[in-house]
Here is the input.
Amino acid sequence: MADEAVLIGPAPTNKSYLNMDAIMSAIQQTGAQAVHPGYGFLSENTKFAKRLADAGVAFIGPNSEAIHAMGDKIESKRIAGKAKVNRIPGFDGVVKNADDAVKHANEIGYPVMIKASAGGGGKGMRIAWNDKEARDAFRFSTQEAKSSFGDDRLLIEKYIDNPRHIEIQVLCDSQGNALYLNERECSIQRRNQKVIEEAPSTFLDPDTRKAMGEQAVSLAKTVGYTSAGTVEFLVDSKKNFYFLEMNTRLQVEHPITEAITGIDIVHQMIRVAKGHSLLYKQEDVGIDGWALECRVYAEDPYKQFGLPSIGRLYRYVEPTHIPKVRCDSGIQEGSEISVYYDAMICKLVTYGATRQEALSIMAKALDQYVIRGVTHNIPLLRDVITEDRFVKGDINTKYLQEVYPEGFKGKQLTDSQQRDLVSVACCMRVKEDLRARSFTNQSRLRVTPSRRKEWELSVNFLGKTYSAVVKRKSEQFQVDLDGELFTVDDNFTPTSLVIEAGVNGDTKTMTLLTKEASGLIKLRYLGTVFKISVIRKQFADQAHWMKEKPVVDKSGEVVSPMPGVVKSIAVIVGQEVVEGQEVCVLEAMKMQNSLVVARDGKVKSVHFKPGDTVDEESVIVELE
Here is the structure.
């Protein structure tokens, strides 16, 4: 963490991180000689780079001319053509309005991608398959682009279905030297934002890698590029590759390139900004091992593969004690995740001599990552890295939709895995019972240790009911689940954050989230949180007397699926609406989401207005 901080404004980005005057004031106040712009906000803004140059402050990145040429996706496509770089068919001009978007989309042929000319990171990007979607895409992309980058210009190009997204890292200096640091595979995405990256790619052969690298360097040299940059390509099943865009900044996923090349990219950026030449030549760049990066987001992966979550991190422990693990984060225990910024908590990076080693370390790191206070996407990440198609390297940019066509539902446990989890939960309930019977620091009381050695329990898990008998034997528990015996090591406590329980000789890693007096225990196992009810048998025998909670019809409510800010309300009280009609637009973490009604009806009430902040599950619009 930095040893000095300067307040540059309130939370909204247009009043702080996009406010050049505030940042220039902070530079003057601290006497800073150079600025590294990071990953987003003004990192690709030509005006900011020029203002720094005019003030005699070094911009640790490319010059403003290169940023303008390559940061503007419309201009960059034209330059790519001059540099003889393979391009995606499309319209090279600025899309003026929704009608113009429809016109060009029909000329190109659906499907098309409508996206922001400035910036990146999946913001301001929409796929359209017909005229209606093109109009909607223009509206939402314009608003997101203006909010994220302060530039609402859009371009339109042919959408290549089911490609891989592979990018080439380049490094250039002001002496005319340029090289490529091989590729990064970034095909695992949701809403055009990367979720898991790896280097190298399982798909590229040496000849294709060389061709892509040389085209990337050619493009950089054509524009007079200096510093670190990334040239992104879409690659089809026959290894044809097409220029997508160039990010004129440091990429979020740069650590995996550093891991396999041994080159500190940020160090080279600082050297180049100072006027030094690169320390490496192309022949010095090799591939040593394999690296993966999982983007750990404060998101609910069960909602569209990740809708934002907010809250305070009241417990936070990174798995940095595991060898070959790197965590790049800007938060700590007690930090608050808000609606104003990107949902990323951490970049979790693992490295191995082989891909399988890197994957195994990643699974272990995800299992031992402790995050409490916000919903996060570790369940999805953990499931993907062990899924058959991903392990084989059979991926594309539609991987998530293809593997989880009904949406992510969590880890689907085998019967054996279910019983392992239940046996540990039973032992946790017994240990809680033993702790409740013990007394400590009570010298005036005669403490008699509990003589109980056997517990009869009833377990309800995933719709199944188990009868369990737990016996305590020295440093182990013996659990009889409907006649099947499990031996569980007594090596954890009811307060353990991470449980590495030995079950029949095999270690099962879990994290304990909650345990309630009602018997409910929540354990995260293989990434997914599971709820297990463990109660004494005599209590279970009386459970049929408990009344079931009635199901309430909520089809007439439009509920916020996440915390956010209401951008617009499209209906008024008394208005007739039809199923699927948009009633409001909600913005969270710089992404805009259209909310629609689930049935026909008349609007009874509107509880919020544009500009209001809403919590998850807030009722925004209600029908009669």
